[in-house]
Amino acid sequence: MSMIDRIHSPQDIKGLCPQELTALAEEIRQALVVRIGATGGHMGSNLGMIEATVALHYVFDSPRDKLVWDVSHQTYTHKILTGRKDAYLDPAHYADVSGYTNPDESAHDPFMVGHTSTAISLALGLAKGRDLLGGKECVVAVVGDGALSGGEALEGLNNAGAYDGQLLILLNDNEMSIAPNHGGLYGSLAALRQSGGKAPNNLFTAFGLEYLYVEQGNDISALVEALSRAKEYTRPVVVHIHTQKGLGCAWAEQNKEQGHWANPGGAARFEGENNPTFTADLLLSWAKKDPTLLAVNAATPGAVGWTPEWRRQMGAQYQDVAIAEEHAVALVSGAAKRGAHAVLAIQSSFAQRTYDQLLQDLALNRSPATVLVYFGGFSSADPTHAGCYDIAMMSNIPGLLCLAPHTQEEYAALLRWSLQQTAGPVVIRVPQQVVHGPTSSAETLLAQGVVQPSTDSEVAIVGLGDAFTYAQQAAIAWQAEGRPAPTLVNPVVYSAASPALVELLSAHRTVVCLETGIIEGGYGAKLAVALAEKGVRTLVRGADKRFIDREAVTNQLARYRMTPEAVVADLLALE
Amino acid sequence: MSMIDRIHSPQDIKGLCPQELTALAEEIRQALVVRIGATGGHMGSNLGMIEATVALHYVFDSPRDKLVWDVSHQTYTHKILTGRKDAYLDPAHYADVSGYTNPDESAHDPFMVGHTSTAISLALGLAKGRDLLGGKECVVAVVGDGALSGGEALEGLNNAGAYDGQLLILLNDNEMSIAPNHGGLYGSLAALRQSGGKAPNNLFTAFGLEYLYVEQGNDISALVEALSRAKEYTRPVVVHIHTQKGLGCAWAEQNKEQGHWANPGGAARFEGENNPTFTADLLLSWAKKDPTLLAVNAATPGAVGWTPEWRRQMGAQYQDVAIAEEHAVALVSGAAKRGAHAVLAIQSSFAQRTYDQLLQDLALNRSPATVLVYFGGFSSADPTHAGCYDIAMMSNIPGLLCLAPHTQEEYAALLRWSLQQTAGPVVIRVPQQVVHGPTSSAETLLAQGVVQPSTDSEVAIVGLGDAFTYAQQAAIAWQAEGRPAPTLVNPVVYSAASPALVELLSAHRTVVCLETGIIEGGYGAKLAVALAEKGVRTLVRGADKRFIDREAVTNQLARYRMTPEAVVADLLALE
């Protein structure tokens, strides 16, 4: 009987000797390589954290003691040890668990987490609650080195430094976030690694925290010893462990950035636009002629198609600010203010970190920087990575011009225009679909969007950006009912309902507006405000404002009544 | 002729000797005490920064060199030296300038800034732009110690530590933010002060930055010497100066927290609700019976009526997290998850820092914490402190129940209910007006809001929270036209348009919705989406989505057509 077969809960590892714990870790490693190879997933971070996870569950008593995982993409071993091993061992159960912690899955997961840099603050909240309620449990935050550069983590460290009670912060230092780390603190971490934790520049003691260093971060005995010692501290302590990302998988060990995530069957991965090199190629070609072009990203260049080779060619015209989205927005604002043609590429979900910076640092200052929003739209992701909120978040910030092209040609024209203009900040929602169309001028797109007028005044269908495809499909279905072609519009600009468009639309009996974002706070709601004042019947279609978990997009489209059949049925029902 | 009379631009101080610079500083100090005494303003921070500002303009060459002021409420001396002295010397011109930097006022102000912790990132952007454009100017970020705890500042420090070029960060350490500082880094700052900058725990060198210490932060000669030295650095350097907040005004020196801001004529100040002790009294009385009640604030307790005496009585049930709004949201989420009755008081404008934390850390985790939003609504503030965005920001986040009571009694009932419930997070917009009414049960308010039905089906007027007053006024004006009483509604819940309310409203010919926030993304837009689908004519009234600067609220109300006269006129125009 293998070790792993004997483990049904963390209690089952309490009686194991060091050799057995190590054997268990090795079995888990083999299982993860197979499972991640088959389903895809976060390879490097999970392989590096196996021993530390075993040690944590050996020393602490979950779920009484609370383990709070930052980002929580490194929790596969934690899930195996906490009653969810079938999801990693049995292909029939691979889909049973999400890739992140989830309290609905297990009492061993205190929070649902998918964004970085939150664990210290959440753990400090648990500790504060424990103190007020008279609890005695231990609270542990497990944080990767990449997460440390995020503002919320640093705020948390500062507050932990002033807290007087038990809190253990396990810092998993694998010398990488997704891409290589950037920022001055990583020099200090390197010095701590090189000095066995004794280097004078210590960010953690500077924040008032206790500090322990463990060089052998993949050695269970060393980890158990250090964690047992740290458990006795009555004030916050950082246990800094040096681990090897991707340990045990040669490919992931050697390709630490690409090995962060593996695709099913080992296929090459690109996470960004369906046309992944489109933006990168445009920016690189322009950058070669324009030395003031500056492309900025916050720790996820691979996700937006900015490969290591592209970064090398961009040289000083590319800047990775590490996980620091707030800083990224302020940085492009400052650079644009100084005359650079600055562009920030950011995922819809991570842009949520930047509401205030978009408003105060960027829009209020009319800095002509460009923000490219990737992954905006519907997705089958877990709830922490949804891309359906950015329209509602950004389009209601004053002074931001928000644009949603439909075709690659429109996108290229708007991006080029945006980098040249000096009036103020521009947000462009990068198309998720690869659609081609005629070359348009940015000026025309900005002035009137894309309008296919009808001679008939019955129905107008508006589709914003990617949703213009759905509008076109609905128009075809409507005509298949023997109706005249409806007016079709992609407004392109979604930061306001333009008066000209409102006038055009209000000449119709019914207006339908489709967008790939939530209805509440979205673009259709702007149209509805204008059209309701005129008493024009308007059907606004988009996502419900609620969290959804790994639901197929086709399912969502049907539920949101955005399919051609649903649009036609809803129009017919009004007659 | 006084020194100050001779200064028309920073060039005019270049030829002054140290004694003259000191005399100039003293004249500025006398002028500021008089001016702030008369108009109100940020007293302590400005008095402490006079010498450093003179020294900065002596050593650097603004506007060629760029001075980026964090928060920028400490820039009165900067404004005096850069051609705006009349606004501080001549009562007829007191209103000529804002309390913050503003590029529209002067080329010496690179940014409009009013939120903290942004200067390092903005300055790094200017520096990066300079490098790409081949500029040679110096860039200086001026940061107060209180701002250091904010995530954006810490992200900026980390990125500055990895930057290879000129950037000077002047850290004004006056041992205070608005209220006393909280967090582990302040222990390290104290050790640096006590050791003359030599203490081993140095946050700045840990971030990879160069570091200089100046104990005599109100001594112009010492400052000029240090800044001249720091100016020669070719990589980022922190110049840590120890200043005395409120220097030269005995009252501000002795009352550093209250002295942060002085009211005109020296009147006592409270910034929060018009009934400033209402919330504090409620929370304190409940906290005495409920040891799990936890009240959290991010560095502005005075602004929400949480006085030093109140804080003393709350003891461990009160937590100031310093300027760290993101952390504050995660903290209450964690504490509520552990069973504490956690409540965060935060200003509408500063809550903008927390979009992602409200969504991911709080709402997604269904943590039953309460967020009290202060200063939500129209105000005559500068654009950086507007309170009109929170409805659009928060009400479109899934899983947040957002409530807008109108009366003190409704507010108290909803706050008490919120602290007891366990379903999930609740946002309450604290009423800005003090209105009394009958005692209501929270359950009734949540289920149906406040509805005064009419026997007539002509007009329904909806007023959310504070705007219910405007709805009542409009109803009276409508009746004065000889019309039947309209249906009157405060929906209370503004995170969704309830189906029951939509049904009630759609039985009317025309619906008017008033709210004290921007129209786009707001509550009325939710109603408009639902009512436009039914073809019901709906007038949504609220603020335009654009930045406004110190405009009287009465003016705004007229411009937004929310006055009784405007509502009646717009209704009549539809007939």
Could you describe the 3D structure shown?
The structure is a homodimer of 575-residue chains. Chain A is α/β, with parallel strands linked by helices. Chain A is built from 23 helices and 16 strands. Chain A has helices at 18-39, 43-48, 50-59, 76-84, 86-89, 119-133, 151-161, 184-194, 203-206, 220-231, 250-254, 278-289, 308-314, 325-337, 355-363, 390-394, 408-420, 442-448, 468-480, 499-506, 523-533, 553-559, 564-573, and strands at 66-69, 139-144, 168-173, 210-214, 237-242, 293-297, 318-320, 341-347, 370-374, 401-403, 426-429, 450-452, 459-463, 487-490, 510-518, 537-543. In chain A, strands 7-6-8-9-11-10 form a six-stranded parallel sheet, with helices on both faces. In chain A, β13, α19 (468-480) and β14 form a beta-alpha-beta unit. Chain A is globular. In chain A, 62% of the residues are buried. Chains A and B meet through α6, α7, α8, α9 and α14 of A and α6, α7, α8, α9 and α14 of B.
Fold blueprint:
The structure is a homodimer of 575-residue chains.
Chain A: H1 18-39, H2 43-48, H3 50-59, E1 66-69, H4 76-84, H5 86-89, H6 119-133, E2 139-144, H7 151-161, E3 168-173, H8 184-194, H9 203-206, E4 210-214, H10 220-231, E5 237-242, H11 250-254, H12 278-289, E6 293-297, H13 308-314, E7 318-320, H14 325-337, E8 341-347, H15 355-363, E9 370-374, H16 390-394, E10 401-403, H17 408-420, E11 426-429, H18 442-448, E12 450-452, E13 459-463, H19 468-480, E14 487-490, H20 499-506, E15 510-518, H21 523-533, E16 537-543, H22 553-559, H23 564-573
Parallel strand pairs in A: 1-2, 2-3, 3-5, 4-5, 6-7, 6-8, 8-9, 9-11, 10-11, 13-14, 13-15, 15-16
Antiparallel strand pairs in A: 12-14
